[in-house]
Design a protein that fits this description.
- The complex is a heterotetramer, with 2 copies of chain A (about 240 residues) and 2 copies of chain B (about 300 residues).
- Chain A is of the alpha/beta class and about 240 residues long.
- Chain A is built from 8 helices and 12 strands.
- A 6-stranded mixed β-sheet of chain A has the order 8-9-10-5-11-12, sandwiched between helices. A 4-stranded antiparallel β-sheet of chain A has the order 4-3-6-7.
- In chain A, a hairpin with a 2-residue loop joins strand 11 and strand 12.
- The longest helix of chain A is centred in the last third of the chain and has 16 residues.
- The two termini of chain A are about 20 Å apart.
- Chain B has 2 domains: about 190 residues, no CATH class; about 80 residues, no CATH class.
- Chain B contains 10 helices and 4 strands; from the N terminus they run H-H-H-E-H-E-H-E-H-E-H-H-H-H.
- The two termini of chain B are about 20 Å apart.
- The chains are: A alpha/beta (about 240), B alpha+beta (about 300).
- At the B-C interface, helix 3, helix 5 and helix 7 of B face helix 3, helix 5 and helix 7 of C.
- The structure holds adenosine-5'-triphosphate (2 copies) and magnesium ion (2 copies).
- The site of one magnesium ion (MG) has 4 residues of chain A, from helix 1.
């Protein structure tokens, strides 16, 4: 895939129908602009990393990508629909196609880990038998089999992040957005989780991971064609080969 | 969704949705307690309204019965004038019956003043005619004029000036009963709304998780509504049971005690409190629905 | 800490502590609303109790006034027997005053039956003596025996059998008023406790952060108590103001209307509702203190 | 300081009066034992890292060290007082001498970041002028000056961790226990935070950091004499020179 780096720090990946498309987007929480003039096209099947110093706006950009925040200016389209025109119900349907791992993983604290992981199935009414076999396999893959019946407040920090990742991919969504999914996880386990995401990517899913862990990025780059984006000074840049 | 559609969906709907809301918490007890307390009070207000209704009727009819025509005439004319007056009363609109009291009844009325041994025939006492009214009652002014023309010795004592304030007082008591029912209903709705909002605010994390995994707002709202409707219903059932129990334990109606002891329900009226729990459930449903929609709309 | 010590600490204490508890939330409104609603009801229950107190007094005294001695005697002995009876009554324990009715009063009493033009002297009607009781009243049995011995034509009509149930009914109404005051107090305490527990549960994170940085449990509890006491007080002030306003708008006492229209406060009684807000604040204080201690002890 | 490695995997650092002392401690959340036969003595002025796979019990061990959990068996003494005999009030006083960074940083969401950081001062009634100068300096050091007036829910993940660290050290406590304090923080910033902890350590404070970031441990080891403990198979081991 050819790649062009514009002078205005826009990253454009040529190809048909980006699943997530931000055009000249700016965002501010009320004070000064946090993000300015961001253009980002996520083609189906692409794999991106998002880095930048703490507080630069990685989480904010991810929230723009699944409609949790609405751009102050510019246009955001998800699956070719403009976010501005969407009703809450449209947005709910879109969310079923995007798996999200939040930086602070939140769960329904009164349901077991397994139930939490299968929550997307429950909510969309696809809570069937075939899925339950997948569920078991997935829980095993993220190493939570011994804790499947526990309640989320009884999990360790790393276990929470693994459960959140499992919940994000259970529906095999078109896009996976993961915000620091390995912040509390040891090296071996994070390699294992990445292999899951790489596998999904090879099945054609689009992946975007925000992280500050450069070793992780380096490890993935040997296995898959991943691009690294960097936020600095309110703009989005394509990081060079120095990574 | 329209109220009707959402009611239908709610009753038919998917019980799984309710599971995604945490089952416990003190808002449960608050809702249950408020619903129970309010239902308890509602039972009493209802009893008050029904009792005052009966009281107003009784006072009205008792006082109506004491309308009288008093005929003072020389002994020879007494019978004739009484006859004329009775005939005249029979053709008067608003008079159900008119009846001359016999000697025994008259002496019974006078007994407190003269003692039991009164020889009524020896006294020049007037003849009393008791009038029982019907409907709106008779036109006192018109009746007086006709009596003056045809029965010179007749005096109409229609007691209107005594009856009016008493019946007014009973009506006011009944109004007070209905008003307090309205107040109680409003307070219940307000409390359930507040409890629902407290629950929704306390479950902000639940809501954000559900939204993250693609739940529609109607799904989330329904889960909360189900819980609160159910709790209001259960609470109201408890309150009505306690209230009816308390009323059943009040001393039975007692002619001497008058108003208060007649506070209980009578006969089929015992069935009326049964409508309170469904009403409370409906109030819970509507209140939670409003609270949930508002909260969900406001949450980012 | 003892209740007294914690009250002192609470009133003197450090206002900064209150800041560490989030100021808003629907439990605020719930507490305010419950306190206000309950104070409103308490004002009415208080008015009911005071009014029935007055009513019981009035019924008691009105009925006592209508105790009578009726003397039927030959015309010649009438005056003498009346005199004897009056003397005898003067020396009877429990009789405040005894007074023979004069001719005008007697004919006024008989007017409903005979019409206004009654020539009382022409009739052999008995003399009536009105007795006003004092204290516990007189011993009817003893008085009857003495009258029988000294005044052969006297009949005592002491109305005890009429008075008792009415006074009982008034007393029962008053009891109902005080009972409902108690119930309202209990319900208020229960609601504030539940609201406080809901608030504590919703603020589990606040508590765990405060503990992490080394706050003592008494510090945490005080912060919650301050808020809830204050809310209960404000709510009760609102409720009392509304309740008193509503009572002031009731129609004024009206001789025809009897019981209901006398429901308002009279004179200094208007000051009594002022004790409700401090009481509510105290209830809020104690309820929150209990809830906070229990919750803090149970939290890990 | 001489170091002895017992056969039973006990780590004993000789010296007088350990500030935190766990002896033959075991812990279980109700099921099987999670930690067994742990002996750990933290001497004043020592610097320790705690590592181990996700779910091995690092957070649990830390909670034992500040009295948030009570050992199932064995003895825990904090500042020479047995945790078992302590009242809640005693424990509150002990907590003022131990600064803790939780893995999931929690704040009072209605108070500003600056107020949250100074909360330990407020709670212990030491909210004076001299402290407020220190507060400003500290906020500046952790890079939160521009966000000092914000509310905690408006912080980014990394900003939260920095605020939590600032709150833990504001009272200049005798011991600092930090659980994954750099999980969401970029490399430069985490070096900066570590320098703060190293400085405290050089002033005689005792430091224990749980982390899975081996690069971090390596970086510190060049600057200060730090020991690395490792939990594996329910026991505590002294990690070898391989780090
Ligand atoms: N709700 C909010 N209101 C105001 N400011 C906010 C809000 N959320 C985030 N911010 C601010 O916006 C900036 C960017 O936040 P964001 O969470 O996007 O950073 P980040 O790149 O994800 O950082 P980190 O790596 O620390 O997670 C931060 O300075 C943060 O304080
Ligand atoms: N409250 C609890 N009840 C039951 N089990 C718990 C509880 N808290 C933790 N656990 C379990 O105990 C084990 C150890 O948890 P802990 O949080 O100590 O791990 P950790 O070493 O800190 O892991 P991480 O690196 O992922 O944070 C985990 O398997 C966890 O699921
Ligand atoms: Mg972030
Ligand atoms: Mg941990």
């Amino acid at each position: 895939m050819p790649l062009v780096r514009h002078s205005k720090a826009e990253i454009v990946v040529f190809g048909e129908r980006p699943v997530i498309n931000l055009e000249n987007v700016a965002y501010s929480y009320g004070g000064g602009e946090l993000l300015s003039d961001i253009t980002l096209k996520l083609q189906p099947g692409s794999f991106h990393f998002l880095t930048g110093p703490s507080g630069s706006g990685k989480t904010t950009l991810m929230k723009l990508c699944y409609g949790a925040l609405t751009a102050t200016s510019g246009q955001v389209t998800l699956f070719e629909e403009d976010v501005r025109g969407m009703s809450r119900d449209d947005l709910a349907l879109i969310r079923r196609r995007i798996g999200v791992v939040h930086q602070d993983c939140q769960f329904l604290d009164h349901l077991s880990v397994a139930e939490n992981i299968s929550l997307p199935l429950m909510v969309s009414g696809r809570d069937d038998l075939k899925q339950s076999a997948n569920l078991k396999e997935l829980i095993n893959w993220v190493g939570l089999s011994p804790r499947a019946g526990a309640l989320p407040p009884e999990l360790s920090g790393g276990e929470r992040q693994r459960a959140a990742l499992a919940r994000a991919v259970i529906m095999s969504p078109d896009v996976v957005l993961a915000d620091e999914p390995t912040g509390n996880i040891d090296w071996e386990m994070s390699q294992r989780l990445l292999r899951l995401l790489i596998e999904l990517n090879q099945m054609g899913r689009t992946i975007l991971i925000a992280t500050h862990d450069l070793a992780l990025i380096r490890a993935v780059k040997t296995q898959v064609q991943a691009r690294v984006l960097r936020i600095s000074k309110r703009r989005l840049h394509l990081a060079g080969a120095d990574l | 969704m329209s109220l009707r559609a959402s009611l239908v969906h709610f009753i038919a709907g998917d019980p799984q949705a309710a599971r995604v809301v945490p089952p416990t918490g003190f808002t449960v007890w608050l809702t249950l307690f408020s619903a129970a307390a309010m239902a308890f009070l509602a039972v009493f207000a209802l009893a008050l309204s029904l009792a005052t209704g009966r009281l107003a009727e009784r006072w009205g009819s008792e006082l109506a019965r004491s309308s009288t025509v008093r005929i003072s005439a020389p002994a020879g004319q007494m019978a004739a004038q009484t006859e004329t007056a009775l005939k005249l009363l029979k053709t008067t609109k608003g008079v159900a019956r008119a009846r001359a009291l016999d000697a025994d009844e008259q002496s019974a009325l006078l007994e407190p003043w003269f003692g039991p041994g009164l020889a009524i025939d020896a006294l020049p006492i007037p003849q009393l005619i008791e009038i029982i009214e019907e409907g709106e009652g008779f036109d006192a002014m018109g009746l007086r004029l006709r009596l003056a023309a045809e029965v010179p010795g007749a005096v109409l004592d229609d007691h209107t000036r005594w009856r009016r304030p008493l019946v007014q007082a009973a009506a006011r008591l009944r109004l007070l009963g209905w008003l307090s029912l309205l107040l109680i209903g409003g307070a219940t709705a307000a409390m359930i709304t507040l409890a629902a909002k407290a629950a929704l605010a306390a479950n902000a994390q639940v809501i954000s998780v559900l939204r993250l995994v693609g739940a529609r707002d109607s799904y989330i709202a329904r889960a909360f509504m189900r819980r609160f409707t159910w709790r209001s219903f259960i609470g109201a059932v408890l309150g009505v049971a306690l209230g009816c129990g308390a009323i059943a334990m009040l001393p039975a109606a007692d002619p001497g005690g008058g108003f208060l002891t007649g506070l209980g329900f009578q006969g089929l009226h015992w069935l009326i409190p049964l409508i309170i729990p469904p009403l409370a459930a409906f109030a819970g449903f509507v209140a939670t629905r409003g609270a949930a929609r508002k909260t969900l709309k406001e949450m980012p």
